[in-house]
Write a structure and sequence with these properties.
This protein is 31% helix and 18% strand. The protein has 565 residues and is an alpha/beta fold.
């Protein structure tokens, strides 16, 4: 079913009433609990054998004002009015005039039906709540002034848009913040990493405007957004806020397959000191959970998914301040950005093809074979330029530790930046094929191809041609290291969604495969990996693993196996 434009452009997922009530209940409980030093909570768990950690202790939270900056039809704002008897002021903003009008009618109806002196459903006196809703564009509001104008303590609550700036740009959407790549450098600012969630910008703007101790914020968002917010807040001042994360079932509530949560922040007084070991954030598996399943935090400048697991394997973690280079280097696979041309399927040669010389080798000629490309074309190419290929999905499906596959890839270079012109003479069929599809290759949008030899690829070097590799998918939540051996007497290539270590022999590869499949590495991954990330495994994460220390622990000698690194 096609999604409505408002849902796509504005990330317009209206909050169900049941979830709205649960959000307010957790905000009441969690923001109060954050008045306790979460650093102590993290240390308690790190020193404990329990992964559940201590239960959060709730303290009363009695906001006098509630603000929903993107209120939509107002289910969360209305739930907050019902939840907090201490409220004096309730304010809602939204860019959609129809939503504002509908919520205004609901607020008026509620006011008219309320019994004098009583809050609906509660047998206690009620202060009159001054409720208002107005049409405002989030990105043109002076939030510092708005927040200071409301009574303290203030609770900012809501469900901001779940949409990226790139998605908005495709639609010509107007619901965009000012353009800035302030947190990005180099290639990150020119490629996909400059694509961010609008909610990240919105919530960060609100947090930056919160300067009164005791004010709180509770927002529904993707868990990846919550982590980015924690990193930003902690970079500015690691002791400014007490945070928490409660996971939600987004498929059940919104019908979308995304990892989402309720993230809360309590503004601490200026001068409050954070844990000397680094800031922390308890993570709960659901809105109903009262004990965290893990403690997220920062150690040695790294954001960690599970501090308890980290403490168990800290001896196998390379310090980011280490000046010595590791004895190995994780490599990513081949990047070509033109799968229809560069990725092939090897066809079984027919008797007629062999008889006609299409497959095989004539005297003085290079061996050739027949393949089919992504355009459905049958092509004849030199074997010297075509190699077996595995992708991340192939690695994830490997069950016996040794992976095989049926794809192939054109490899026109042996090293990055190598001149491709010699292919005219050494591999004329491949040169002719690439030239035929040159316009497709020339249109590759990534700037990394600019100024490079025609038909260039990336992620290729002597390491690519090592006969044995230990590889891992960068994309899958369940992390599994696998052995990759030669196919048809040729080294197997991996694509750029994979990472690998190269080896000269099967015995050496198996040695490190066993080490990487050990329990300490499993705990290391639990400490470092955020499964909901777009790419849970990265080269930087793998580089943090001290493989030399692990090999020494296993009683094996450190081998000079990585000759092709």
């Amino acid at each position: 079913m096609a999604r409505a434009r408002s849902e796509v452009e504005f990330g317009d997922f209206q909050t169900p009433e049941g979830l709205a009530a649960a959000v307010c209940e957790v905000a009441d409980r969690a923001v109060g609990a954050q008045s306790i030093d979460t650093g102590e909570l993290g240390r308690a768990q790190a020193d404990s054998d329990s992964t559940a950690g201590p239960s959060a202790v709730s303290a009363p939270f009695a906001p006098k004002a509630v603000l929903e900056p993107t209120c939509g039809l107002g289910s969360i704002l209305l739930a907050a009015i019902e939840r907090f008897p201490s409220l004096e002021v309730a304010v809602g903003f939204d860019v959609n005039e129809d939503y504002v009008a509908a919520l205004s009618r609901r607020l008026s109806a509620r006011h008219a039906s309320s019994k004098p002196g009583l809050r609906e459903g509660r047998d206690r006196p009620v202060r009159a709540v001054e409720a208002s809703v107005s049409t405002r564009d989030f990105f043109s509001v002076d939030w510092a002034s708005v927040l200071r104008s409301l009574p303290a303590p203030l609770l900012i609550i809501g469900n901001p848009p779940w949409v990226t700036n790139a998605g908005q740009g495709v639609l010509g959407g107007r619901n965009l913040p000012p353009k800035s790549n302030v947190d990005l450098v180099g290639l990150d600012a020119r490629t996909g990493k400059s694509n961010f969630d609008i909610s990240e910008w919105m919530i960060d703007a609100l947090l930056a405007a919160m300067d009164r101790p005791g004010d709180g914020l509770a927002m529904l968002c993707k868990t990846s957004v919550a982590r980015k917010l924690l990193e930003k807040v902690w970079r500015r001042d690691p002791s400014a806020f007490g945070p928490s994360i409660h996971r939600i079932d987004a498929r059940r509530s919104f019908g979308v397959a995304v990892d989402a949560c309720l993230v809360t922040f309590l503004r601490h007084p200026a001068g409050k000191t954070s844990s000397a070991r680094g800031p922390t954030c308890p993570v709960y598996d659901s809105l109903d959970a009262v004990s965290p399943t893990s403690i997220l935090g920062v150690r040695d400048g790294r954001l960690l998914a599970d501090l308890s697991a980290y403490e168990e394997v800290v001896q196998f973690v390379r310090s980011p301040r280490s000046r010595s280079a590791p004895s190995f280097q994780w490599r990513s696979g081949i990047k070509h950005d033109c799968a229809k041309v560069m990725e092939l399927t090897r066809l079984d040669p027919s008797v007629d093809q062999v008889r006609e010389g299409v497959v095989g080798r004539e005297p003085g000629d290079a061996p050739v074979s027949v393949f089919e490309n992504g355009l459905g074309e049958r092509v004849t190419l030199e074997e010297s330029c075509v190699f077996p290929l595995l992708k991340s999905g192939d690695l994830a499906r490997g069950s016996d530790g040794l992976v095989r596959g049926g794809r192939a890839v054109v490899v026109p270079q042996r090293a990055m930046g190598e001149d491709t012109e010699p292919l005219r003479g050494s591999a004329p069929a491949t040169w002719s094929y690439l030239s035929k599809h040159g316009s497709r290759l020339d249109r590759r949008s990534s700037s990394i191809y600019q100024g490079k030899p025609r038909f260039s690829i990336f992620g290729v070097g002597p390491y690519s041609f090592a006969p044995w590799k230990v590889a891992v998918s960068g994309l899958h939540k369940e992390v599994r290291f696998v052995l990759v051996g030669p196919m048809g007497g040729k080294p197997t290539m991996l694509d750029d969604t994979c990472y690998f270590l190269p080896f000269g022999t099967e015995a050496e590869a198996r040695q490190y495969f066993e080490v990487l499949s050990s329990a300490p590495v499993g705990r290391f991954l639990r400490a470092f990996v955020f499964p909901d990330s777009k790419r849970p495994i990265t080269a930087g994460l793998l580089a943090a693993l001290d493989l030399e220390a692990l090999v020494e622990r296993s009683g094996r000698s450190w081998s000079a196996a990585l000759e092709t690194r």
